[in-house]
Amino acid sequence: NGHNGNSRGALIVLEGLDRSGKTSQSSRLLPYLEGLGLSVELWRFPDRNTYVGEMISSYLANKSQLDDRTIHLLFSANRWEKRSLMETKLRSGTTLIVDRYSYSGVAFSSAKGLDIEWCKVKTCLSCYKHEISFVQAPEMGLLAPDLVVYLDIPPEKAAERGGYGGERYEQLEFQRKVAEHYKILHDTTWKGHCVDAPLEHATGRPDTVDGLIPSHPACYTIKVFPPFF
Ligand code: FDM
Question: Which residues form the Thymidylate kinase-like domain (predicted)?
């Protein structure tokens, strides 16, 4: 129903393994939402255009080495440095489609098997209402999405899609672990929540998954889950 100056934009997050189709889906969703009269922008994390983003990019390209905790916090810092612009955009009525967000932060770092102080994620997520893991803590205070769509694809299928680009995390074995951790995140954050028209509030639209391609060539299913922070 478009925005009338009073309604804020929606924060829509797409998550999934590398090569899961986030880019295709976001470029589908963009014109779809624009067609509804909304002002929409595509964002992605990591945002490699900042100084922190450059450090992340160099790490991902194996051009620098960083301690697992350090890179984890850089990914989070990269979201923090965009937070105020994000809020301004949303308040001014622009809907943001964001390719990766805090869920990537938690799933990828916990898949590395960080030491116990950091990797209490399983335990913490299963009772996430009472306890926040060290991995999640840096995310607290960032803007919670209105909708998080996880493109669930078997890691083997993702790997078949045109190959990986050779960045640090683009290896089948590691992607399998990431998928497991996304699953934990999904199963545990789902508990106690119901997704009733998460975007209705923001845009007046009850169902935003419409613009996505539910059975696009490969074989993923789309799971929707609510914010954990
Ligand atoms: N990644 C991304 C993380 O490990 N943590 C994060 O917080 C984010 C946002 O970075 F392998 C990983 C996920 C991926 C890599 O992402 C770069 P893109 O989407 O390929 O640029």
Answer: 14-187
Beta strands in 76-220 (DSSP E): 94-99, 147-152
Both tokens assigned to 116: 């116990």
Please count the other Cβ atoms lying within 10 Å of the Cβ belonging to residue 87. Answer: 14
Q: What is the spatial distance between Cα 8 and Cα 14, in angstroms, rounded to a whole number?
A: 19
For residues 113 and 176, give the distance between their C-alpha atoms in angstroms, rounded to a whole number. Answer: 13
In the chain the domains, ranked by start, together with CATH numbers, are: 11-225 (3.40.50.300)
Question: Atom 17 of ligand 1 has which residue's CA nearest to it?
Answer: 46
The lowest-confidence range among 30-34, 92-96, 110-114, 168-172 is: 110-114
Q: Which residue has the higher pLDDT, 126 or 26?
A: 26
Contact between 26 and 99 under an 8 Å Cβ cutoff? The reply is yes
Distance CA 17, CA 151 (A): 8
| pLDDT tens digits, one per residue of 44-70 | 999 999 999 999 999 999 999 999 999
Test site for ligand 1: of 52, 82, 86, 100, most ligand atoms within 8 A of the Cβ: 100
Instruction: Give CA–CA dist 162/158, Å, rounded.
Output: 9
List phi, psi (to 5°) of 149: -110, 125
Q: Ligand 1 centre and the CA of 201: distance in Å?
A: 29
- Using a cut of 0.90, tell me whether the model's pTM lies above it: no
Cβ-contact 41, 76 below 8 angstroms? no
Q: Using the predicted structure, report yes or no on whether residue 35 has a pLDDT greater than 50.
A: yes
**CA–CA separation, 205 vs 228, rounded Å?**
22
Q: Which two tokens stand for residue 162?
A: 């045109």
